[in-house]
From TrEMBL, chain A:
Residue ranges, compositional bias (Acidic residues): 57-73
Basic and acidic residues composition bias: residue spans: 1-15, 45-56, 74-86
Annotated protein name in UniProt: Vacuolar fusion protein MON1 homolog
All residue ranges annotated as the FUZ/MON1/HPS1 first Longin domain in the record: 175-297
Annotated stretches, region: Disordered: 1-22, 42-117, 578-612
Homology family: Belongs to the MON1/SAND family.
Domain of life: Eukaryota
CC terms in the record's Gene Ontology section: Mon1-Ccz1 complex
Species of origin: Eleginops maclovinus
Highest classification ranks of the organism: Eukaryota, Metazoa, Chordata, Craniata, Vertebrata
From TrEMBL, chain B:
Protein family membership: Belongs to the small GTPase superfamily. Rab family.
Pfam families found in the cross-reference section: Ras
UniProt name for this protein: Ras-related protein Rab-17-like
SMART domains tied to this protein: RAB, RAN, RAS, RHO
PANTHER family in the record: DRAB11-RELATED
Molecular function GO terms recorded: GTP binding; GTPase activity
Keywords carried by this UniProt record: GTP-binding, Nucleotide-binding
CDD domains to which the protein is assigned, alphabetical: Rab5_related
Keyword Metal-binding: no
Gene3D superfamilies: P-loop containing nucleotide triphosphate hydrolases (3.40.50.300)
Matches recorded under InterPro entries: P-loop_NTPase (IPR027417), Rab_GTPases_membrane_traffic (IPR050209), Small_GTP-bd (IPR005225), Small_GTPase (IPR001806)
């Protein structure tokens, strides 16, 4: 085992001297069966490709983020990262602690390896079987001449669902996400059809249950170039296979979003009930039609920093306009209405809550993200008014709200109203609220004012070297229970192309992982990357990520940040939803919300009631 | 196909030439039921906007309205376009309860959707009060004739056996869609409107107390969504 740990540690990317997988003796350890999984999913051509690129570059894979950066970052040696507050050299320190962290994980897994001798063989057989199936039987269903053609590049018209899972292009996706049931039944795959992947998912489940049989939990696997992260949630197993170099922590957070999105459609209670009743239930039956919502979520997770920061990005508008909109929402209420949310271009304009709700619990950013994704992913909303059950997993994972969703500006469909009620029969009453809101907005000409609203440019801050930033204020006593928000300017040149945007986000993700490292959290990082310089700073009041041009000096950057913070303070009222108004939908204020609702017939499936 | 439509007024212009006269406006609830992907939303879009778009799966239920002018009355159709996905089945009673017209939609090129429509029919029949709901079987995607799995005769004979009305449509081409809506309107007005309290009058701010309706399906909501 000792040797094993060591090897995994090496594979980690601290230093890779020789390719580990091929030199391994036949799979007789967990780690080797894991590398078999790697082989299985990313067979030789890809692996070799990857290795050859790695070999050309200095093996400093933890201190760099993207491949491009790697080449230059590696050159000036570990010192490109200079911390302002800590004493030792950043990179080596980081590497050390990251690898120990990984060793810890491996050690955890290793605990199970004692009884490996019995069940190890089983895993290997399983893996071999699955591999056979995938290449033989799995492929047979498709016409073989087509298959050969498809190995190059999937045609543009092909949806991700029809992708050939044996093709190289499939393996090269940056981030795969799989969801399966404990019985090993496929539920969702980001790329390729679940049927074609059933044996791959079977292997994943074999790994999970193998480790489980030793009273342990598999958390992650590191192979060179890929990180495999497992998350078990009730009867569901979520797996992420990523070459994005994000940390395990970040990837697990993303898997959690996927889980929450599934919960938002089905509720945790009904999922557990279904699987208690029938272990090998095919959950795809219930998720049919929702794949797009999950696909959309994963694309957002990759491209929108809100998920990384666990905060909501609201549209910057004059506080007078925001207040006026909030008041309109505040006036159009009906019993059992709990949240009124106004959205423009998929960003929050304002959010108004029922008084008693805000006292009991606040709306979590993740729940807002799920709602925004639901609206963004479904063009069907544009047709009419929608009335649908929806669960807010962080608010209460077992109950439904009923959401009324309607666009206020057809046919453009940019301004969207979302009203959440706890009463499933309240459609007509809630729809009436929408008419009131529409009328009031018409009277105040709000729609045309909203149409003029745009995200802001970093140039407004007036700091020449500053290219981009993300600022997330923390809860302070007087705005406790307020939605966590962050503000960020438009990504402008040189971050206008999709690739460059992604590259900057990857840099931010790296900074974030360093700040939030579980073993060695940092307060301040000054990171000189290849084409830009980044500075991240976390205090008790805020979390800030800034991106400067590469020629900025440390002193300059610090002055710039002081300026930036002053600017944000000045613009606060425009950048954030400051004092979200509350309303009371209980007809009689002397009655508690509980009393007000007790006259409903079927209170059992009223989400909010059972929460109280 | 057209000859199967009962009570179709030969001239669709008929519904417009009565605009000048002040007529009563009655509310009529119509629900579209059927498997996912049979074209319920496309039909609803044809009914209301006479256009065709590729739609993504409906979330929950979409609510649309369309006003139909008949010779002596105006019907304001409140169309509940339900999601066909199984996860929403337990909430569907919420949408079809108290409907004056229920359109059971299937895809003529997919036999299983035809079978599914019959399951919906059985469920509706459980709460069916004679004369309160007009049931209509709709075979959609008539434009996919070359992939047809359910013949016109089959649809027609199911409709005859179970006392439904039957039409084949194409939401893609718009074939028979107008006629269907008009026929449903006439039928609803004749069957339901004639009854005491069958259809309620529509005011600018409609208020309906849904809670006093029967609770036959209240228990359904305990399973799943």
């Amino acid at each position: 085992m000792e040797r094993d740990n060591h090897q995994v540690g090496e594979t980690e990317g601290v230093k890779i001297c020789d390719p580990p997988c091929e030199s391994n003796p036949p799979a007789d350890t967990l780690a080797t069966s894991l590398s078999l999984l790697g082989n299985h999913m990313f067979p030789d051509p890809v692996e070799r490709n990857y290795r050859s690129t790695v070999k050309e570059e200095p093996e400093d894979s933890l201190s760099d983020i993207t491949a491009e950066e790697e080449s230059l970052d590696g050159d000036p040696h570990p010192h490109q990262v200079t911390k302002l507050e800590t004493e030792e050299t950043e990179s080596s320190g980081c590497q050390n602690n990251v690898s120990t962290q990984q060793l810890d994980i491996e050690n955890e897994d290793a605990a199970t390896d004692n009884d490996r001798s019995d069940s190890g063989e089983f895993v290997v057989t399983m893996l071999a079987k699955a591999k056979l199936e995938e290449q033989g039987i799995g492929v047979k269903g498709r016409s073989s001449p087509l298959l050969e053609a498809e190995t190059q590049e999937p045609p543009a018209f092909m949806s991700h669902r029809d992708e050939d899972v044996t093709a190289d292009s499939w393996r090269q996706h940056r981030k795969h996400v799989f969801v399966l049931s404990e019985a090993g039944k496929p539920i969702y795959s980001r790329y390729g059809s679940e049927e074609a992947l059933s044996s791959t998912m079977g292997v994943m489940m074999a790994l999970v249950s193998f480790v489980q049989s030793g009273d342990n939990i598999i958390r992650s696997i590191y192979s060179d170039g890929h990180t495999v992260v497992f998350l078990q949630k009730g009867p569901l197993v979520l797996v992420c296979v990523s070459s994005s170099r994000q940390t395990e922590q970040q990837l697990r957070g993303e898997l959690l979003y996927v889980y929450y999105q599934i919960i938002s459609m089905l509720t945790q209670a009904s999922i557990s009930r279904i699987f208690e009743h029938k272990k090998n239930y095919d959950l795809r039956r219930l998720l049919a039609g929702s794949e797009k919502i999950l696909d959309g979520l994963l694309n957002l997770v990759d491209s929108d920093p809100s998920f990384l920061l666990a905060a909501v990005h609201c549209l910057p508008i004059a506080s007078s306009l925001r207040d006026a909109l909030s008041q309109i929402l505040q006036k159009a209420i009906t019993p059992n209405l709990v949240f009124s949310i106004l959205i423009a271009n998929n960003q929050l304009l304002t959010i108004v809550q029922e008084k008693t709700v805000i006292e009991d619990s606040r709306l979590e950013p993740a729940d807002v993200h799920l709602l925004l994704n639901l609206i963004g992913a479904s063009s069907a909303f544009q047709a009419g008014e929608i009335w649908t059950p929806i669960c807010l997993p962080l608010f209460n994972p077992d109950c439904y709200f009923y959401a009324y969703i309607s666009y206020l500006d057809p046919p453009e469909c940019t301004v969207c109203l979302l009203l959440l009620s706890t009463d499933k029969e309240a459609f007509y009453a809630v729809a009436e609220c929408k008419r009131k809101i529409e009328e009031a907005m018409m009277a105040q000409n709000s729609l045309s004012l909203i149409a003029k609203v745009q995200s802001y440019s970093v140039s407004q801050v007036g700091v020449s070297d500053l290219r981009h930033f993300m600022y997330k204020p923390f809860d302070v006593p007087d705005n406790y229970r307020q939605l966590t928000q962050f503000t960020s300017p438009e990504m402008e040149a040189p971050y206008s192309s999709e690739e460059e945007k992604m590259r900057l986000l990857d840099l931010y993700r790296y900074m974030h992982s360093r700040i939030h490292s579980s073993s060695r959290p940092l307060k301040l990082i000054y990171h000189v990357a290849e084409r830009e310089t980044l500075l991240a700073w976390v205090t008790s009041k805020f979390e800030l990520y800034t991106c400067f041009s590469p020629l900025v000096t440390k002193a300059c950057a610090i002055t710039a940040i002081t300026k930036l913070l002053r600017w944000i303070k000045k613009e606060e009222d425009r950048l954030f939803i400051r004092n979200p108004p509350k309303y009371s939908t209980t007809p009689n204020p002397s009655k508690s919300s509980r009393g007000g609702k007790s006259d409903q017939q079927d209170s059992t499936d009223n989400g909010f009631l059972s929460l109280l | 196909m057209g000859e199967k439509l009962p009570q179709v007024q030969g001239d669709p212009q008929l519904r417009r030439d009565t605009l000048s006269r002040p007529v009563r406006t009655l509310r009529a609830k119509m629900v579209l039921l059927g498997s996912s992907g049979v074209g319920k939303s496309s039909l609803a879009l044809r009914f209301c906007k006479d256009e065709f778009r590729n739609t993504s799966p409906t979330v929950g239920c979409a609510y649309l309205t369309q006003v139909m002018h008949l010779s002596d009355v105006t019907l304001r159709f409140e169309i509940w376009d339900t999601a066909g996905e199984e996860k929403y089945h337990s909430v569907t009673p919420l949408y079809y309860r108290g409907a004056h017209a229920a359109l059971l939609v299937y895809d003529v090129s997919k036999r299983d959707t035809f079978i599914r429509a019959q399951v919906w029919l059985r469920e509706l029949e459980k709460q069916y009060v004679a004369g309160s709901t007009v049931l209509w079987l709709v075979g959609n995607k008539g434009d996919l004739a070359q992939h047809r799995q359910v013949s016109v005769q089959e649809g027609q004979s199911l409709a005859n056996d179970r006392g439904l009305l039957f039409t084949e449509t194409s939401a893609l081409s718009g074939d028979q869609v107008d006629k269907l809506l008009l026929a449903v309107a006439h039928r609803v007005y004749e069957c339901v409107g004639a009854q005491q309290g069958g259809l309620s009058e529509w005011q600018e701010t409609p208020h309906v107390d849904l809670r006093r309706r029967n609770h036959l399906f209240a228990s359904c909501c305990k399973v799943g969504p």
